[in-house]
Amino acid sequence: MTKEAVIFGVSGTLFGLLVGWIIGSQQARPVPGVPAAAQSAAAPAASQPAPPLDLQRANALEQQAKSRPTDAAVRSELGNLYFDADRFDLAIPWYEASLKLNPKDIGVSTDLAVCYYYTNDADRALKQIDQSLALDSQHPKTLLNQGIIRAFGKQDLAGALESWEKVVKVAPSSPEATRAQQGIDGLKSAHQGGATPAAGSVGAGS
Questions:
Q1: Is the N end or the C end of the chain the one with fewer CB atoms within 10 Å?
Q2: End-to-end alpha-carbon separation of the chain, Å?
Q3: What pTM did the predictor assign?
Q4: What's the pLDDT at 101?
Q5: Residue 94's pLDDT is what?
Q6: Rounded to an integer, what distance in angstroms lies between the CA atom of residue 163 and that of residue 77?
Q7: 47 exposure class (CB count in 10 Å sphere: 0-12, 13-18, 19+)
Q8: pLDDT tier at 203 (50, 70, 90 boundaries)?
Q9: Distance CA 41, CA 172 (A)
């Protein structure tokens, strides 16, 4: 999986809840709908700006895709290129095309879910996550992302907790488990302190 991602931070400033990032290619990405002040307060490290889109590379890959109509890899590579430049709207059709040719690629499926999330369609993102988990129900990064989207896209904190607990169970020594445990601790700490998020303050979605 080239860029799946994940999230992080604990915010005591506004919600007392986990505030996080879905990241791709080591780039921290702010959660849609979460105030910038809260994200800055919670950030474990400074967010890096997305690299500029390499138009020459994009054009070359698009020409390859046209000449190789059954090549899933070149389509996923195009999706990755647009993803890394934060052009999630442009990444979506290429990931979708790649999955039509190779529907069992869990990395592409999860990256597509992230793109849906960042284009403010949390419901569609979660449906795509379900498709990823149908391929591998214990995939740590997919489960971690599911928790993020549940928390910030749907304000489903119980569902987020369930997802992150699965990560810790299935991959206890993984980096994803470390991040999931921080999310669990953040939610439990907020609950013990009586903190609850204001309606509409966390995440995007319908």
A1: C
A2: 28
A3: 0.74
A4: 98
A5: 98
A6: 28
A7: middle
A8: very low
A9: 28
